């Protein structure tokens, strides 16, 4: 029906074993519809046959539903409010905490004739759209000459910065530490202590008064 009307459609689902799900954005003509390819499912490394029994309804986990529903609504918000990257397909595997993403082109030999019609319309729309030229903006140079040899120099040296930030663990791509803990032993400031004088408290107080 969405193919007939050209209605953009956000679809989501949770598997029968309730440990995987997906969110899919279907733009008729632009991305694959259900007839183009069977719905994608995320491999959960569980044999579904072991879970399904005659007369027993499919498993359901509110947490999986929550994650998938939240992801779906998030994607709708991104689409409607125009921020971030809208996923065409986002899978969720609860067993491995794995979120695969991908996008699928529609099948030109789709069994749905409306889908094929939408694909033609999409191609026409794309062809009619003027190509956006990438204008390279040259960076403006503020000062052509530097008669006085003025430069910007960092106040802290590289070593000082390293010592202050402490060890940074090796992290996979896309993850950084919010802050680091400085090495305690290296940065200990020697505590200044007053040499022990043999004077009593009263004597010291008297000394203070005379100051
Ligand atoms: Zn299709």
From TrEMBL:
InterPro entries the record matches: ThiF_NAD_FAD-bd (IPR000594), Ubiquitin-activating_enz (IPR035985)
Stretches of the chain forming a coiled coil according to its record: none
Residue ranges constituting the THIF-type NAD/FAD binding fold domain according to the UniProt record: 1-111
UniProt-listed Gene3D superfamilies: NAD(P)-binding Rossmann-like Domain
Pfam families: ThiF (PF00899)
Range of residues in the leader sequence: none
GO molecular function: ubiquitin-like modifier activating enzyme activity
Name of this chain's protein: Ubiquitin-like modifier-activating enzyme 5
Taxonomic source organism: Colius striatus
Taxonomic lineage of the native organism: Eukaryota, Metazoa, Chordata, Craniata, Vertebrata
């Amino acid at each position: 029906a969405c193919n007939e009307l050209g209605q953009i459609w956000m679809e989501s689902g949770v598997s029968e074993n309730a440990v995987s799900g997906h969110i899919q954005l279907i733009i008729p003509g632009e991305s694959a519809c259900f007839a183009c390819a069977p719905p994608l499912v995320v491999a959960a490394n569980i044999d579904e046959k072991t879970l399904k029994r005659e007369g027993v309804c499919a498993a359901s986990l509110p947490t999986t539903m929550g994650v998938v529903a939240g992801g779906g609504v998030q994607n709708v918000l991104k689409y409607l409010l125009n921020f971030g990257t809208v996923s065409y397909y986002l899978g969720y595997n609860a067993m491995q905490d794995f979120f695969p993403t991908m996008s699928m082109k529609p099948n030109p030999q789709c069994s749905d004739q409306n889908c094929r019609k939408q694909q033609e319309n999409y191609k026409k729309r794309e062809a009619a759209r003027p190509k956006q030229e990438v204008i390279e903006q040259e960076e403006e140079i503020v000062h052509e000459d530097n008669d006085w040899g003025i430069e910007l120099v960092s106040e802290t040296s590289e070593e000082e910065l390293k010592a202050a930030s402490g060890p940074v663990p090796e992290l996979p791509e896309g993850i950084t530490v919010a802050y680091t803990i400085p090495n305690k032993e290296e940065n200990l400031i020697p505590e200044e202590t007053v040499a022990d004088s043999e004077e009593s408290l009263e004597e010291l107080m008297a000394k203070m008064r005379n100051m």
